[in-house]
Every structure is written in C-alpha cells, then in structure tokens.
Amino acid sequence: MNTQANLGERVLALVAQPPDTECRASPRPRDAADRAIDGAATKAALAAGTLALPAGPLGWATIAPEMLTVWHIQRQLVADIAALYGRSAELGPAQMLWCMFRHTAAQALRDLTVRVGERVIVRPAAQALLQRAASAVGMRLGKQAAGRALARWVPVVGAAGVGAYAYWDTRQVGRAALQLFESEQVIDNPV
C-alpha cells in the first residue's frame, strides 16, 4: 500500500510541470507526431527491456527506475505532440495525467475530461482532484509493478515482454495526446 501511495506521489510530481520541448508547430502535425510516437515507443522499449535484464532480486531493484524512465520518455512525447500542434500553452497537469495514464486507469481519470462530439472538455483540476486521480493511478500502477517483478525471474523473455509492453504503452500515450490535441479542447472554467 505504501508503494502505491509513493507511486501516486511520483505520478503527481511527474505531471505537475510539463517539460520543455524543442519541437515547434508543424504544418503537418499528424505526420510529425506519428514519427515522434514511433521514436519514443522504440526508445521506451529499449530502455525498459535493458533495465529488465537483471534477474531475481537485483532485477527487482530496476522496476522503479524502469517505470520512471519510460514515464519521462512518455512525458516528453506528450509535450512534443502539444508543441507540434501549436498547443503547448494548453498543456497542464490535467492534460498530462490524462494523456499518460488514460489507457491504464481510465476510471480514475474520468473526472478530468469529457468528450462532447469533436471537442474534449477539460475540467479545471484542483490540486485535490489531481491528488485523488494520481493516487488512483498509483494503485493501478502498483498492481502492474507486481507483474513486472515476476518478469525479473525470467531475464531474457521477461525483458522482451517488458520492452514490448513499454512500446505498446508509449504508443497509447501518443494516441491519447493525438486525440487531445487534434480535437478542439475547451478548458471548462466554472462561473
């Protein structure tokens, strides 16, 4: 349980401030974003697979660094996609959290956004809402970490599986960012 709370805190710290990006608005943002997604997914797969190679108890020590490394790659991907669409100013903690963990913990993030037709309505995320969502994501990720621990007992096959999952996971993050930044996004400010 403490590990899950710690993961929730790490998730909140991760999304609190979007990273800087060297990307600029593109005349063909979808093509540039597709290339960015492919590159980030490959980078995440290689990093995760490499960190998953040590076996047994030593391998357990690599679980947190592996997860954090992949999250940092994904975090940068979201910021890069926002920039490619010329929408970096709209990227805040709620959008980062939604893009990075929507496919993993959709139920936990249901209070952050609503899709209405072609628009995505982003609800204002008070710190309490972000903390609650990050805690729920942390609980879900804690369960996934247990599965990663099992992969450490079968080094090469486990590393390949961890790398393949990081590739898929990063592509899902990229798709969520595309969905968010290709659509009209409305920041819902209550009156």
End-to-end separation: 38 Å
Q: Percent helix among the residues?
A: 55-70%
Largest sheet: 3 strands, mixed
Mean pLDDT: 78
Alpha-beta content class? mainly alpha
What gyration radius follows from the Cα positions, in whole Å? 17 Å
What global shape is seen? globular
Domain tally: 1
Low-pLDDT stretches: none
In total, the number of strands is 3
Number of helices: 7
Order of helices and strands: HHHHHEEHHE
Give the assembly state of these chains: single chain
Tell me about this structure:
The chain has one domain (2-12, 28-187). Strands 1-2-3 form a 3-stranded mixed beta sheet. A hairpin with a 2-residue loop joins β1 (113-116) and β2 (119-122). The chain is globular. Helix content is 66%, strand content 6%. It has helices spanning 2-16, 29-51, 56-60, 63-84, 93-101, 127-151, 155-182; strands spanning 113-116, 119-122, 184-187. It is mainly alpha-helical and 191 residues long. α1 crosses α5, α2 packs antiparallel against α7 (155-182) and α5 (93-101) packs parallel to α6. The mean pLDDT is 78. The chain contains 7 helices and 3 strands; from the N terminus they run αααααββααβ.
In short:
The protein is mainly α. The protein is 66% helix and 6% strand.
What's the structural blueprint in terms of helices and strands?
Layout: H1 2-16, H2 29-51, H3 56-60, H4 63-84, H5 93-101, E1 113-116, E2 119-122, H6 127-151, H7 155-182, E3 184-187
Parallel strand pairs: 2-3
Antiparallel strand pairs: 1-2
Helix pairs in contact: 1-5, 1-6, 2-4, 2-7, 4-7, 5-6, 5-7
Characteristics:
7 helices, mainly alpha, 191 residues, 3 strands, globular
